[in-house]
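Protein modeling request. Please complete all fields; requests missing the sequence field cannot be processed.
Requester role: graduate student
Desired output: 3D structure, token encoding
Chains: 1
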Amino acid sequence: FVIGKGGANLRRIREETQTKIEFPPEGSESDVITITGKKENVETARDMIQKIQNELANIVEEEVTISPKYYNSLIGTGGKLIHSIMEDCGGVSIKFPPAESKSDKVTIRGPKDDVEKAKQQLLEQIHEKELSSFCDVVRAKPVYHKFIIGRQGANIKKIRESTGARVILPTDKDEDKEIITIIGKKDAVERAKAELESTIREIDNIVEDEIKIDPKHHRHFVARRGGVLYRIAEDCGGVQISFPRAGVDSDRVVLKGAKDCIEAAKQRMREIVNELESMVTIECVIPQVHHRTVMGAKGVKVQAITSEFDVQIKFPERGESNVQREEHEEVHQ
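Delivered output (333 residues):
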């Protein structure tokens, strides 16, 4: 349960905290989970794991009586509505009985508070007759979705509370990733659509800005086919980032995109620069005769060290003089 379906929870914690998390070997009686990383990141990862454990200790299962005539409407086209309710309620499980059973018992399983919240949403859907009410859509580029959703779903929650309409974003299974569905009473849907379109127009408001980055750090961003820049752009709404051409001594980096996207990208780039500035270089003198042993077959040993401790290790070229060797036998931390 801590690892999550397909390792989702573990992957999310690792990515958000930049830590290494190790579980006991399969079959082991140990219940110790080892977390490695910066102190503050380790503490954050520990708290996230403990939160999951506390939630698991509070798992309940409850049956709700709902007439089968509402099942199809509650589930929604392609299961969108019911999945939206489950996600909104902390990922609870909602199971409808098989059609042939004619049972009116719907089972909800999850943390107690989330189960109660899901139960209320199901009953509200029926009571307000939103199931057979108005439906409309708006289109937005997938890279905009995280800004439409907001931090921890704050923007979507605000729209729902102010209009009463439910906003459903496309899932990985949807062919058209741009369609955002709005369900509710007609006037509520129209208000929600207007708010969404206003938000999309703001995101569409492309601007150009710049950030100063010391040229000595440029290589980190553009190396390996610009992998770092690609991840920043992907995480920040597709913002375009342009570094000075090779040979140009300038610290001016230009960003182009939606204002919010640019600010998010600049913040991430500042964080990376701060990490680079905090790095140090130490020299470790090792007789060249031992280099192959330290590196291992095809460099497997040194690769394991660099991976585990997130450092760079550089060995001198064979045949270098002692002076050259002392200059190049360095470990970048």
